[in-house]
Amino acid sequence: MKFIVAIQNNTDVVFSKSDEEFAKLLAKTSGVNTTADGMLESARLTTTLNPFVVNLLKLSNAHDSNQFSELVGGMMSLNCKHTIAVSRTINGIIYLAINGDQTESKEFLVRKIYVLHRLFEFLCGPHPNFVKSSVGGTVRGELSDLLDLWVKLYNTDQTFLIEAVEKVHVRKQILEDCLKMLDQSLTRLREASMRSFSYGLFFVNGRLLSLANSSGARDILSSDMMLLMLWAHYAETTEQDLVTMKRVFLKTYDGQLVHRLLHVIRVYPHIIAVYLSETRSPGFEMDFYITLTSVKHFLDYDDDSVQTNFDKIEDFCQELSRHCQSNVLVERLSKVREARRNGNGVVLQGLMGGLHDLLTRIFTTLILNKEQAYNNECMAAINTALTDTSTALRNQLKDYREFLVTKVQRNITSINYWQSYPGLVHFLYVRRSITHDSSLTAPTLATDTCSPNEEWEQKLIKEKTWKMVEVMRKQLQQNSTTVMIKDGDFCYTYFIRFKDRDGHHLVQDKPLNVKPDWLPVGTIAGDFYLKVIQQCFPNTPVQWIQCLELMCIHLSVLPTAFIRSQCEQLIESFWQILDSKLPLD
To answer: Cβ-count burial of 534 within 10 angstroms (0-12 exposed, 13-18 middle, 19+ buried)?
Structure first.
């Protein structure tokens, strides 16, 4: 029994999703029906949730307390003993996630909320109400499908459990050939479509095979790489055309949203090519995003940092007025200036809210709709270029396709490591940076290509791995950077280390002190490890530091010192192998 909802301006339901059991409950107790597209009826749902919003605002920060779960359970006619409910307010949007059958933990629901918010940003940019517009139906469906897919992958795939990219480990020659294919296709696409194509990526079964980028391309952050991987999985599992184009929003180092076009080619089953191209006016769009963010920040916090940026808000609005040849913005700004001079906070808050709504509407018309219209005009040229690229890639990859699909099923096997490291059952080695260089190295857990005996073994290792990750995340949130915990016949260990770009060990300048308001451990919702690096090394650029994590499962009969020594050897071994690009398996 599951339910999640996003509410804007305290009353406006912009997105909701429930399983069949919860939908039946809402229909029975509140008359909330399901629409033709499978969504809950928005107007009735808003009425049902109004009392909840009022109580939520009273509870303030107790949004995942037992008291809160009991309140929500009672309001929704659920068994309060089995109800888990959490809520978060992110950028003015209230999110509520409920589980009524104890199949999702409180920590998972918090993560689910933040992932949903990041998916909103990925698909809608700074305009979540876009999902309710006349053209937002497709986006709403994609949002629902992507959330379902993320839940499935989180529970079955180590990559999405850990939230780090897993690369396909193949011979150097194959990687060089694939990189050459991507470089050639980027050039072909740029020349044929007159668009600035910045990145090309190959995915095999959702694993990254190769990545190419043009000179001067903006870095893809690790959180965006996970979303691109999620979209590659989505393209693989849905009945899409062989060539598709999608508007998405990626993030910069400072958290600003960047408008990009995502082009997907289904080269072969399980082999996906993804390309990113820039829009026509990235500089103007960036200024627009910054202004929208500043106004929104004022509405949420009204602090000194926004007051000092007010001149920049005015400058951009004046430029936008000239661009639109309209005096509406000028008149609104005049009223805002007057309210600021008079020190009338209540009036100013209302005027700034109106300014934000007006800017959002202009953004939709000027940026999203016009860009879409431009894309429609040049769609023929882009589609022709992508189709030609698809044909070329199919010809170039035909000799590798069967090998790649087979290889990814056993990307890294455990046998060699069991021989070299006696007593080691499983490991997860993660090399984290703020860009796409982050990667996961771990033996493949595959139950569909195993004998019955191997299948039992793989299921047990998977169960222990998911349990270990959950335990170690809680330890990290309690500031533990070296952990060893015994669990029956097994022993879990966790190490976090730091190195510079040359591979030298770094000693933390300051101890780790995780704050209660930090995002969940991971990267999709927001880069938790960026916070860790910034806090432990406040005087060093984050781009210069890599964060290394190692989680291991050993047999518990081994001596503690032996296990620790093995873990240290693994960390050094993986650093050297991955740095030298030698094969892992």
So the answer is: middle
- Stated as kind and residue range, the H or E segment containing 158 is helix 158-162
**Cα–Cα separations (whole angstroms), residue 335 to 29, 295, 339, 342, 351:** 46, 15, 6, 11, 8
| pLDDT tens, position by position, 96-138 | 898 888 889 989 999 999 999 999 999 988 777 677 655 556 7
Q: Give the separation between CA 8 and CA 444, rounded to whole angstroms.
A: 42
Two tokens, residue 187: 């050039």
Is the whole-model pTM more than 0.70? yes
Burial class of residue 211 in the structure, from the number of CB atoms within 10 Å of its CB (0-12 exposed, 13-18 middle, 19+ buried):
buried
User: Please, what is the end-to-end C-alpha distance for the chain in angstroms?
Assistant: 42
Measured from the Cβ of residue 302, the count of other Cβ atoms closer than 10 Å reads 13
Q: Which of 401, 393, 402 is nearest to 212 (CA)?
A: 393
pLDDT in tens, 23-67: 888 888 777 877 766 677 777 787 777 777 776 666 544 455 666
CA distances, 157 to each of 109, 135, 324, 444, 522 (Å): 18, 33, 48, 9, 14
CB 188 within 8 A of CB 212: no
Determine contact, residues 517/567, Cβ cutoff 8 Å: no
Handedness of CA 82, 146, 449, 573 (dihedral sign): negative
Q: To 10 degrees, the CA torsion angle through 483, 441, 436, 116?
A: -70
**Contact by Cβ (8 Å): 93, 6:** yes
State the Cα–Cα distance between residues 496 and 15, nearest whole angstrom.
38
3-state per-residue secondary structure call for 211-248: EEECCCCCCCEHHHHHHHHHHHHHHHHCCCCCEEEEEE
